[in-house]
């Protein structure tokens, strides 16, 4: 990414990171409403959809999603940022391998993340392209890590 793209990512990121748990909850709620069977892979799978927004385990997980993105966005533009991104997202991938999450499910979540960011940050087409580039890079790290550690499908 060039310096203008990095600046745009960091600037637009200020909106969801201002309320990290609520932002993560918005992503997960949209994901589970669209793909209810995905809930089976989560530790709060026993909680009815309508109760998720107030569930402590759900909110904790939602906050962790935003924190890992925040950690990633903070390293962008720093020396060694690609290595740091690899480290951050490889750890996420490896931690999720035991849950046997399919690439299809990861890609469904990817779409919801981008849709939610677009809506929350009021992204224009150019900004959407830049965010897509970042999320695609993150997903390439995840998929590379999963394939190296053992197929998660």
TrEMBL record:
Keywords: Heme, Iron, Metal-binding, Oxygen transport, Transport. It comes from the Eukaryota. It holds the Pfam family Globin. CDD domains: Mb-like. PANTHER family: GLOBIN-LIKE PROTEIN (PTHR47217). Belongs to the globin family. This is Globin. It comes from Drosophila arizonae (Fruit fly). The lineage of its organism: Eukaryota, Metazoa, Ecdysozoa, Arthropoda, Hexapoda. The gene is LOC108614775.
């Amino acid at each position: 990414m060039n310096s203008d793209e990095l600046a745009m990512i960091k600037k637009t990121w200020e909106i969801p990171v201002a309320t990290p748990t609520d932002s993560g909850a918005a992503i997960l709620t949209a994901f589970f409403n669209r793909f209810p069977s995905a809930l089976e892979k989560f530790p709060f799978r026993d909680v009815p959809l309508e109760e998720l927004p107030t569930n402590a385990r759900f909110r904790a997980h939602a906050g962790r999603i935003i924190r890992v993105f925040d950690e990633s966005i903070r390293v962008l533009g720093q020396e060694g940022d690609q290595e740091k991104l690899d480290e951050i997202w490889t750890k996420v991938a490896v931690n999720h391998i035991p849950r046997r999450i399919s690439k299809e499910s990861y890609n469904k979540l990817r779409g919801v993340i981008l849709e939610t960011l677009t809506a929350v940050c009021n992204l224009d087409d150019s900004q959407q392209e830049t965010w897509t580039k970042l999320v695609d890079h993150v997903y390439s790290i995840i998929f590379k890590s999963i394939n190296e550690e053992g197929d998660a499908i």
